[in-house]
Amino acid sequence: MSETTQDGILTNCYGQVLPTPDDGRERKTIGEWNAVMRAEGRPEVMDPDGFDRGDPGLYHRRYTRAEFEHGALASSCMMRG
Q1: 73 lies in some domain
Q2: 14, 28, 58, 72 — which has fewest CB within 10 A?
Q3: Strands 10-12 and 44-47
Q4: What is the model's pLDDT at position 25?
Q5: Does the CA dihedral 70-76-79-81 come out positive or negative?
Q6: Is 80 contained in some domain?
Q7: By the 8 A CB rule, do 58 and 48 touch?
Q8: pLDDT tens for residues 9-43?
Q9: In this structure, is residue 11 part of a structural domain?
């Protein structure tokens, strides 16, 4: 059985955060996607070298999950505890 917390995060009966279904249209910033990755126990982007670092709006631009994961694959990432 799963529950939704007050801030809309889906958790299981042990309080572990569950991935949110993504229809591919949801867009988030790199920081917002990093929070999702952390909640899923996945590595976070530490240095966005897989993205266009010359883009002045890099940290404000919104990416789909597929776009984020594509950039993250070529970025320096690290697990955080």
Answers
A1: yes
A2: 14
A3: unpaired
A4: 77
A5: negative
A6: yes
A7: yes
A8: 666 676 666 666 566 678 999 999 999 999 999 99
A9: no
Q: What is the pLDDT of residue 80?
A: 80
- What residue numbers bound the domain in which 52 lies? 24-81
Mean pLDDT of 35-52: 93
CA distance readout (Å), 47 to 9, 25, 39, 53, 61 = 26, 25, 19, 9, 16
Query: Across all residues in the chain, what is the average pLDDT?
Result: 82
Q: Is 20 left (phi over 0), alpha (psi -120 to 50) or beta?
A: beta
List, in sequence order, every residue forming a beta bridge with 63; answer none if it has no partner: 28
Between 3 and 57, the more confident residue is 57
DSSP collapsed to 3 states, the chain: CEEECCCCCEEECCCCECCCCCCCCCCECHHHHHHHHHHCCCCEEEECCCCCCCCCCCCCCCECHHHHHHHHHCCEEECCC
In a domain, 1, yes or no: no
